[in-house]
Every structure is written in structure tokens, then in C-alpha cells.
Amino acid sequence: MAITAGITLTSAAGDLVTDALVLSTSTNLTKAGSATALSQTSGLARKTTTSASQYILFDADDYPSGPAKAGKIYLKNTETSAALFFTISIDTKTIGRIYAGDFAFLPWSNVDGTNDIKITPSTSASHTLEYMLFYE
Amino acid sequence: MATTTASLTLTSTDLFDDSLSLSNTSTLHKAGTTIGLDQTTGLTKTYVTATTQFDPFPVVKGTTNAGENGRVYIANLSEDETEYIIVTIGDLVIGRLYAGDFMWMPWSPKAQHVNDIEITPSVATGMWVEFMAIHNFANIYPDSDDS
């Protein structure tokens, strides 16, 4: 079994910096400290929110916990209006915002069952988020 | 206007009965606009030889960062599958990046030490780590000599 994640960051010469930026890397998503692939997933899901309240996307109690558990989270704001964003939080800590079209891919350390992954839409207008968790 | 794009792919032929083939591309904009992010720390590659926590994107003391649309790339270039780096924000552990792993996430640095990103290598025997922030924050280093 294999799950591959790849990222490419590009900017033309003279744009972000004087030289061109072409960064590309990929990795196989594996269990902690091994070459064995992650084997479980939440599946690719979509959530449309209609409130500016905070939502729990992944409740840490529902997933295996411990420092040596590998997890990867994918999040995408599918909106097209530039002003609409989701604030991403882990437990009580704000990580940052993903605006329209933005995505994030980050590890998840569900050490003690408290690190819930949470989102807060920027307004009570309809906001749609796509998300997926890979875990062991 | 600076145009920087990020593309992510997630693929698997055997995770499900069906195949997974997810692909996304986004242009990096300043918060709530279609104006491109125009500052970067540059792509840094460093060889770390201690398990001491370090700060790849220092926030300037006594300041705040109002802009809310920075992006952070961090990769563990080790080829030893047991070696990892722990990535934290403030006092919260986000997760571990094992050999070859990368992350791409938004970042709201706020004031110094509130949301600083920190990296802690798992071994002192030497690991290559790569990182870059693309942002429009006023107050991450380098700082004015007068402040």
C-alpha cells in the first residue's frame, strides 16, 4: 500500500524573488518511524458551514493517540470569494487562515486526545471546506 | 505583482478499492485580496546537529503581525525513517515530520512567542532540514537595526 503526497512551489524569475522558484518534493505517507504506509483514512469529505461558530473537524478522542502515531491532514477552502476564510486551530491554538482556494497539508500529533482539529468560518455565509485525514 | 503558486497532489492506487488522485493549485494572496504575497524568508537548508529546539522564522520582539496570510513550508530531508522533527507553534505540538515528510500550512505569527514556529530534531547525529515562509508580515526577522 502506498499514499504519495507531492508539493510544488513556483514563481517566475523577477516575481517573488529575482531568481525563479521551482521547488518540488514528494513523500510516501508512512507510519511513525517505519516504511509501512498509513492505512486508515477519514475519506475525502466536504463540510458547508452556515455559522461563524467554531466546528470540530477531527475529534482527537476518536483517533489513536500517542506521540508515536503518524497522522496527516489535508484541508482546502473551496470558496472563490477572496475575502472568505477558515481559521484553523488545534485545541485552543490558532494556526492560521486558509482563504478562498487555499489548502494546507500538515502532520497531526494526537498525543493525548486533546488536539482536536477545529475550523472557524469567517462569516455565517455559506463556506465549504474539503478535508481528509490519513492515520495509523 | 508577485505570483507564487502552490500545488499539492495526493495519490494512491491501493488505499481504497477506488484510486485516490487529488490535485490542487492555489495562488498565494495577501489576506482577503487577490494581491500576491511578496515577501519570503527564502528557502533555507540547514544541517542540525542537536536536539535543541530552534526557531526558523523569528518574530520581532515587542511587535505584532497584523497580516494573517503567511504560508510555511517545512521538510525533513533525512533518509532514515526513524528520524523526525517535531514542529510546534507556541507551546502546542502540531506533529512530527518523519524522513522525507513535508508540511504546508497557513501561519498567523502574532506577537513574539505567541505563535512562533519551532522545530526540534529527534537526534543529534545530524539531519538536513529545509524551510521557507512566504508572507506579508511586517515583523519577522530581519529587523530594523534601530529597534
Question: Could you please describe the fold and organization of this structure?
Answer:
The complex is a heterodimer of chains A (136) and B (147). Chain A is mainly β and 136 residues long. Chain A has one domain (29-135): Jelly Rolls. Chain A is built from no helices and eleven strands. In chain A, strands 3, 4, 6, 9 and 11 form a five-stranded antiparallel β-sheet that branches. Chain A has a four-stranded antiparallel β-sheet with strand order 5-10-7-8, with no helix packed on it. In chain A, a hairpin with a 2-residue loop joins strand 7 and strand 8. Chain B has a domain at 39-135: Jelly Rolls, CATH 2.60.120.
Describe the protein's topology.
The complex is a heterodimer of chains A (136) and B (147).
Chain A: E1 4-11, E2 21-28, E3 40-41, E4 45-49, E5 55-58, E6 71-77, E7 85-90, E8 93-99, E9 103-107, E10 117-121, E11 127-135
Antiparallel strand pairs in A: 1-2, 3-11, 4-11, 5-10, 6-9, 6-11, 7-8, 7-10
Chain B: E1 4-12, E2 20-27, E3 39-40, E4 44-48, E5 70-76, E6 84-89, E7 92-98, E8 102-107, E9 117-121, E10 127-135
Antiparallel strand pairs in B: 1-2, 3-10, 4-10, 5-8, 5-10, 6-7, 6-9
Concise description?
The complex is a heterodimer of chains A (136) and B (147). With 136 residues, chain A is mainly β.
